[in-house]
Amino acid sequence: MAKANAPRIFVSLTAPTVSAMEALATRASGVPVGYELRLDYLQDFSQLETQLRQMLAHLHFPQTIATCRLAGAGGMLQGTPENQLAILSAAVRAGCQCVDVEIESVEKAGVAMLRELRPAKVIVSYHNFQKTPALGPIYRRLVRLPVQMVKIATQGRHLKDNLQIRTLLKNHKRQSPKLVALAMGASGMPSRLLSLLWGSGMTYASPLNHAPAAAGQIPADVMRAVYRVERIDSRTHVYGVLGSHASLSLSPAMQNAAFQAKHVNAVFLPCQAGKLADFLAFARALELKGFAVTMPFKRAILRALDWVDPLAHRIGACNTVALQRGRWLGWNTDAAAVVEVLTKRLRLAGSRILILGAGGAARAAAYAVRAEGAEVVIAARREATARSLARGLAAQVVSWDGAESLEVDAVINATPVGMYPHVENTPIDLSRLRVRVVFDMVYFPLATRFLNEARSRGLTTISGLEMLVAQGARQFEIWTGLSAPRALMEQAVRAALVHPGQSAKDQGSRMKDE
Predict the structure, then answer these.
(1) Closest to 311 (Cα-Cα) out of 347, 337, 335
(2) Residue 292: enclosing H or E segment and its boundaries?
(3) Angle of helix 189-198 relative to helix 160-171, nearest 10 degrees?
(4) What pLDDT is stored for residue 360 in this prediction?
(5) How far apart are CA 323 and CA 307, in angstroms?
(6) pLDDT tens by residue, 137-153
(7) What is the pTM for the complete model shown?
């Protein structure tokens, strides 16, 4: 597996039958891609050797790893190390070049178990599904065994756990046996994307449109096409998106597409964190050149910046940070995006704009249009929050029910009403509102019921997708100084919204507040 043409991305195949596993492999086809056959997911082992031999012949696999993890070690096989050895031995006879055995089985059955798996190359693995402990002692526990590769996979509960993985890999980059290491879970996704750069022997991925074998796995096609993990090198600039649900953000698809189109050697990562301090330590350690900020950190990030754009300061929220000459500088591109998409449809100066909601997106919209000379009216379910926002803007506040009887030039839905799965909901009744332009910041679904009703009445509409791309394009221009390839960025977002590797539940978690 150390050959120059050996695959560096291995797709984990989980299925109840060998034929179903083969079907998954055809979806994840690519050159050079390897496959991890999770044999513990199979329901019948009676014809295993014959079925595997046929499967490998049909697909001409360049590299395969046979894994059969016991239930006590996070797998599906109910049995003993002896049962496990019998299954793995059948896989070796069928032609699998490598086998993965967890350290618990080796320590229970003895080192003789490894000799019985020859001539396959053996990976001995350690998994911790609760946390990332100190990794040095674990590495020393594994490396003393007569194997060709050791694998360490731990739960990434914090972004700082990725840094432990990086340190381990860099410390043992050229040592033998070869080391594979990664952090699982949403917060561990950076390690899956950067582990090859750090010196890991491989990284693991999921097939397209199939549940991953481990939390945090990314479809192989996405790893290759969106993140280009095999092309990341020491000169690659690293950017990211910070948020409590950053693993679901559309920003990586959009920004990585822009980097590729403009030939910028950069990668944009999801950075999911529960605490701002965790992200800040991670960003400094990896020397991030810039990052997007999503909920719930748009206000808290202000305290960590060396300079804040005046408009972002007035809004009290920042969604874009760039590192320039060693200083972190902050902007709010949401505000500029709101102005951009609205001014294509109406003259803001002197217009009357109704804003539904009083959260972060509503604040950006309210300050942005007010700065352009528009009159602002705010309606929110929590009227006290609306009044707090209005005080800094000399804006009018109306009750939620009272908003429907107004006459305005435009209405902006800055609430999650109408977002999947509650697609039948609308924030207000358009039949009672006298309005010309309807702007819905929700972008999943792309055509909300609110927008569809507006179109049926002949009103001008603005989708949340247009807003998302507009703010993302301005972020790209701040970071790179280049003009943003907006059409391509929109295309990437549309593809990500309907990506077969994402479930509807995951897509529904995405909203306007990117």
Answers:
(1) 335
(2) strand 290-293
(3) 20
(4) 83
(5) 11
(6) 999 999 999 999 999 99
(7) 0.90
Placement of tokens 């030939």 in the chain: 263
Three-class secondary structure assignment of 434-496: ECCEEEECCCCCCCCHHHHHHHHCCCEEECHHHHHHHHHHHHHHHHHCCCCCHHHHHHHHHHH
Inter-residue contact 91 to 42 (CB < 8 Å) = no
Among candidate residues 223, 239, 241, 237, the one with its CA nearest the CA of residue 297: 241
Place of tokens 């902007």: 331
Phi-psi region of 438 (alpha: psi -120 to 50; beta: other; left: phi over 0): beta
The confidence score (pLDDT) of residue 202 equals 94
- Which pLDDT value is given to residue 3? 52
d(CA 145, CA 455): 68
Decide if 298 is catalytic: yes
478 - beta bridge partners?
none
Amino acid at 452: N
Query: What does the block give as tokens for 75?
Result: 């797998």
Catalytic residue selected from 151, 160, 178, 298: 298
**CB neighbour class for 391 (10 Å; exposed up to 12, middle 13-18, buried from 19):** exposed
Report the helix count and the strand count for the chain, using DSSP H and E. Answer: 19, 20
Please determine, for residue 507, whether its predicted confidence score (pLDDT) is greater than 60. Answer: no
Q: What is the pLDDT of residues 119-131, one digit of tens each?
A: 999 999 999 999 9
DSSP string, 95-108: T-SEEEEEHHHHHH
Give the type of residue at 485: P
319 in helix, strand or coil?
A: coil
Tokens representing residue 183 in the block: 């952090």
* Structural tokens at position 262: 């403009």
pLDDT(501) > 50: no
Which residue, among 339, 353, 343, has the nearest Cα to 409 in the 3D structure? Answer: 353
Name the DSSP class of 206: B
* Euclidean distance between CA atoms 331 and 348, whole angstroms: 22
pLDDT at 359 (0 to 100): 85
pLDDT grade for 31, boundaries at 50, 70 and 90: low
pLDDT on residue 500: 42
- φ, ψ at 92 (rounded to 5°): -65, -45
Confidence of residue 29 (pLDDT cuts 50, 70, 90): low
Amino acid at 237: H
